[in-house]
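Subject — a protein and its fold
Fields — amino acid sequence, structure tokens
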Amino acid sequence: MKKLLLLGALCSAVTVVSTEAAALGGSTYTYLRCFYRVSDTPKTPATSYHWGLDPTTGGWYHVKGNWWKDGPTSWMNMFYTNTSQATLKSVCASTLTKKGIKSQVAAFTGADNSLSLNYTIYTNDSTTQTGKINKIITVGDSLSDNQNLYNATQWKVPNPKSWFVGRFSNHKVWEEYMAESLGLPMYNWAVAGAAADSYYVIPGVNQQVDSVLIYLKDAPNYKWANSLFTVLIGGNDLVNYDRTPESIIAKEQEGIEKLIVAGAKNILMLNVPELSKAPVFAMRPAEDAVKVKANVADLNARLVVLRDAMQAKYGTSLNIKLFDTMSVMNDMLANPASYGITNTTQSCLDINEIASTTYAYQQGLRANCTDPNTFVFWDTLHPTTNTHRIIAEKVTAFVRANFTAVP
């Protein structure tokens, strides 16, 4: 089967920077990038940014803290601070208002200068914490990635004129909507192109978990029991890398058990949507879709077994649940009118071929995509932000019902 670029299999198309960071840096500060959409229409995902301004002095806002590595010289870095995520967002909102920008804050990141990549700003936990979940930690692929491949490719993939700043959609992805609904910060290790295990330089979920362990070890006052971990993986394994459902489960279990051994108590797995319904398969031989459909069903059945096995093995010390993403997507495809959707078969972006460079170039819209919210798919494999939002609503309700420690 030819690789279908499900989640950014771009090793041959771009150079991925993967320098290892090595040590916790000293006390310093960084600046705040405040992103906003250049247009309020969902047809225009392009963004711009202003540097955050201090609400009191009017000068550049300083986020005080420390880098994981001494200096932001690698895409693998993070800035630790005692400043809350709410304060950072408020500073950005104030900045945009001062600049005459009417759009809301779309995202914010740390950066030392105009040449810096976009770095996650991690808010340190307080010394006194309740037993409530106070953050979301995400691992996965491009269904969840919100800037990691974008940083790794030096802001080339996905093209920021056709995809929303690092997301493989036209705006936010599902776990961002969920985090907003739950009122929790979300820290993202997902990488587009990822599989359950590494593929060339792209870290799989297993390697993402290793990275989580390293970064959170240095996070002041961090408590594993107070995080909700989300895991959505498997699409690339089946569509791009020709791996078996059995091998995916083995590696996913390995990663999940690393989290559990470290102290994780709340884990949300999500099964894989029906990938064979994506528009890209209309461009491939029919047997490709048949094979992927069967493998997705096999993988999702094995995920049920994995969830049950993990719960039985670790007992009441662990709360591990499995959300049925496939059923939600299938219902959207079968009953689109119930969701205000009119097009379930085409991508909003006018992409009509399979090419390794698709995500690196600006793409136009189809003539009939006057409102992306009526389309299930933004490109030939990835959902629109409206589809992500609908999924997020279902996931959020599921989390509230099954994880009593959420606020």
About this structure: The chain has two domains: 17-124, 128-402. The longest helix spans residues 286-314. The chain is about 30% helix and 15% strand.
